[in-house]
Amino acid sequence: MWTRQHPPSSYADELRAGMPLSRDGACQLIRCAEQDLPALLSAATQARQRFKPGVITYSRKVFIPLTNLCRDYCGYCTFRRNPGQPGALTMTPDQVLEVARAGEKMGCTEALFSLGDKPELAFPEMRETLRQLGYKSTLHYLEAMCELVLRETTLLPHPNPGLLSAEWIARLARVSPSMGLMLETTNASLLTAGAAHDNAPDKVPAKRLRTIEEAGKQNVPFTTGLLIGIGETLEDRVDALLAIRELHRRFGHIQEVIIQNFRAKPEIPMRDCPEPTQGEMLRTIAVARLLMPDVNIQAPPNLSAPYYDELLDAGINDWGGISPLTPDFINPEKPWPHLEQLKLRTEAKGYALRQRLPVYPEFVPAITTTSGVLSERVKAAIDSDGYARRPA
Ligand code: SF4
């Protein structure tokens, strides 16, 4: 048993010596008893303070749901639609620019492109839409819309299009300073009948790891993370974090790890599945922080409202993308906190809130040392510390 001040001695020794937390240690900590939680949180908070003292960041963004058609059917998803379903939408270039320009007026610096994975492979309607728009595939259209936003506005695109080949990572990296793909889990048994990914061919963990690895080979600042509460075990969470840590050890390109919690909704197949508790969130975040003390750890505040400020106690240093304009299209029933509220609650915990770009300050040089419009746009958007030029 460990005291409120100190984690169990073997792990405390590991952490004090600056050694990476072992799998065994992480598996014990992620299931620690309630009375041991304060010590775990204290160790995680100290690690965060050593990494980035006193500052919590967020990205002021607009959410651009380029298309919500998707060939996958994840059991927790409310975003996806089939063609013809109410709410099915593929945005036009004019709609994309309209949202981006409105965000620009409100001080946003990120255009987050979220979209379904390869809908044209499943739906002739999407093939026809793309033909009318003049593009061969959803990724060709995404690339053009990232370039449009980059050239016509001050926003920086951050695409989240699902699995990507080496060629597509290279193409999108020319029009966006960072990109993302949630690993979600390394548990391949969630692809079996009745599980969260049983009809989601793009959620094969090995394929997702390959995309993240390829981004590493190309030195692309990359956002990934876990979706917890979709049928995985606590050990699976540790293994997914370890897989991310290993890729970051090899390539150094993981700019951010998101810990996202599953939320049940009446319209999803997993409507009756239990949601992770706040205690599970705190433990998972704290273990992520201890496993990766020098990586930005993010958790979305709207999915832990009204007690989201407790997530700061577990070692996050970022709130993710917050929009003053567009709803969270992935969790539309969970509005983002008002930015003023977020600032007040962050400051009440003793931290300053700063606006960052979609690419984190330490990864900015990877972009600004190149030439071209992307580099110029990033240079124009940063302050002397690599944060967004606008005040938080
Ligand atoms: S979570 Fe993503 S990949 Fe899965 S169904 Fe929804 S949009 Fe498609």
List the helices and strands and how they pair.
Elements: H1 9-16, H2 23-30, H3 37-51, E1 55-67, H4 93-105, E2 110-115, H5 124-133, H6 138-152, E3 156-160, H7 166-173, E4 179-180, H8 205-217, E5 222-228, H9 234-251, E6 254-261, H10 278-291, E7 297-298, E8 318-322, H11 339-348, E9 352-356, H12 364-368, H13 373-381
Parallel strand pairs: 1-2, 1-8, 1-9, 2-3, 4-5, 5-6, 6-7
The structure holds iron/sulfur cluster.
Characterize the structure shown.
- This protein is an alpha/beta fold and 392 residues long.
- 37% of the residues lie in helices and 14% in strands.
- The chain contains 13 helices and nine strands.
- The protein has helices at 9-16, 23-30, 37-51, 93-105, 124-133, 138-152, 166-173, 205-217, 234-251, 278-291, 339-348, 364-368, 373-381; strands at 55-67, 110-115, 156-160, 179-180, 222-228, 254-261, 297-298, 318-322, 352-356.
- Strands 1, 2, 3, 8 and 9 form a five-stranded parallel beta sheet that branches. A four-stranded parallel beta sheet has the order 4-5-6-7, covered by helices on one side.
- Helix 2 crosses helix 9 (234-251) and helix 3 packs across helix 10 (278-291).
- The longest helix is centred in the middle third of the chain and has 18 residues, at 234-251.
- The protein starts with 8 loop residues before the first helix and ends in an 11-residue tail after the last helix.
- The model is unreliable at 1-5 (pLDDT under 50).
